[in-house]
# Entry
Amino acid sequence: MSSSMSGGSRRGPALDVAVVGGGMVGAAAAMSLARAGFATALLEARAPAPWQATEDVDLRVVGLAPSSIALLDELGVWTSIRQMRSSPYAHMHVWDAQSGASIDFDAADEDRQLLGYIVENNLVQSVLWEALESAGVRRLYPAKVGGYERREDRVQIELDQGDAVAARLLVAADGAGSPLRDLAGIATRGRDYGQRAIVAHVRTERPHCATAWQRFLATGPLALLPLADGRSSIVWSLPDDEAARVLMLDDEAFRAELGVASDFRLGPILATTRRAAFPLKLQLAESYVAERFVLLGDAAHTVHPLAGQGVNLGLRDVTELRDTLVAARDAGRDIAAAHVLRRYARRRRSADTLDALGFDALARIYGWQAPPWAAARALGIRALDRLTPLKQRIAAHAAGR
Ligand SMILES: Cc1cc2nc3c(=O)[nH]c(=O)nc-3n(C[C@H](O)[C@H](O)[C@H](O)COP(=O)(O)OP(=O)(O)OC[C@H]3O[C@@H](n4cnc5c(N)ncnc54)[C@H](O)[C@@H]3O)c2cc1C
# Structure
C-alpha cells in the first residue's frame, strides 16, 4: 500500500473522514472535505491509471452539468480538465421516433453560453487523483476495505491487506454495487430495466454542431453526445437480448443499424470504435446514513442514463455533505452526530428520489409504444416545447440550480 496509517490515539482518531472509493464522486468528496479543513483519507482498491492525451477518448464519458463544473472549478481542477480534453455543448435536441415530435434546449434561452461539457470519466478521475495530495488528502491504495466496526467515537476500517484506519466518519462512495452499503445493512429498492446501454464513439458524415442529440425509439433512447475531435459518443439503450445481438454485429452492420436508429440525423455512420455495454437499473438506498456512516454517489443512487445525470447527482451530494459538516463543525458539534447526518440525508435523499423517480417515469413513458400512449407522448413533447417557463425550469434543474 502506498501510504499507511494507524488506528488513532485515545483522544480520538487522527482522521475526521475516511472516504472509501476513488471514483469521480469519492475523489471529489475527499478533496472538497480536505479543502474545508477536515483531516481526510481516501481509500481506493485500484488506483486509476494516469490519463494519456495520446490514447483514444475513453469509452466512458459523461455530460457534466454547470453545477458539477462549478464544484470542480472550486476544487481547482476544472481548468486542467477542460484544457486536457473536453467538449462544450450549447444545444440539446430530443425527438420521438414514432411521432416525430421534438423539443430543443438552447443555452441562449437560459442566458448561458453552454449547457455543459462532455468529458471522459477517467480524465476527471485521474486529474482529481493527482491533485489530492496537494489538497492534504492521504491517499491509501491499493486499499480494499473488507469490513468496519463502530466504536463510541470512531469507525475502525479494516483493509483486506490487514491494516486498519480509524476516522470519526466513514463516507462510502464505493459505486453501485457498494460492498460497504451491504456491510452497513442498508437495503436498496428499484428495478432492473432489463436494458443495457451500448457505448462507442462514431464518426458521422455531418458535424454534431456542439449539440447533444437524443432520439426516443420503441426500444429505448439513443443519445449522440458531441466529442472534441468531431466524433460523437453514443449511449444506445436496448433491451438485453437486442443489446446482445447488436454487440455481436460486425462493424459494417453496426454502422448501418445505428444510422437507421439515429434517423441519419448526422448522416451515415462512417466509422466506429469498439463497443462496450452497461446494464441499466434504478437503485435507491433505503437510507443514506447509518451510525457514523454516509453513502455518496452511485452507492446511494443509480439512475437511467437517459437524463445523463448520474455523476451530477453524486457531485451535488458532495457539496451538500461538505456544507453540512462545515456547519456542524462551526457550531462546535460532532460532525458524525446522528442529527447532523440526518440533516444531510433529508436534504439529499428527497432531492435524489425526486430526480430518480422523474427519470424513471420518463423511461417508462418512453417504453409505452401502444398508440394512445405514443400520441399522448407526442402531445406532451409538443406542449412542453411551447411552454417556455416549464422548459426553463427543466433546464435549470438539469443545470443543478
Ligand atoms: C452508459 C452510461 C452512461 C452514463 N452517462 C452519464 C452522463 O452523461 N452524465 C452523468 O452524470 N452520469 C452518467 N452516467 C453515470 C456515471 O457514470 C456514474 O454515476 C458515476 O461514474 C458514478 O461515480 P461514483 O464515483 O459514485 O462510483 P464509481 O465510479 O463506481 O467508483 C467507485 C470506486 O470505489 C472503488 N471501490 C469499490 N469497492 C471498494 C472497496 N471495498 N474498497 C476500496 N475501494 C472500493 C472502486 O474501485 C471504484 O474506483 C452514465 C452511466 C452509464 C452506465
User: Anything to note?
Assistant: The first helix runs from residue 24 to 35. Residues 20-26, 43-46, 62-63, 121, 143-145, 173-175, 179, 197, 199, 235, 278, 297-298, 305, 308-312, 314 surround flavin-adenine dinucleotide (CB under 6 Å). The CA atoms of residues 10 and 87 lie 51 Å apart. Residues 4-10 have pLDDT under 50 and may be disordered.
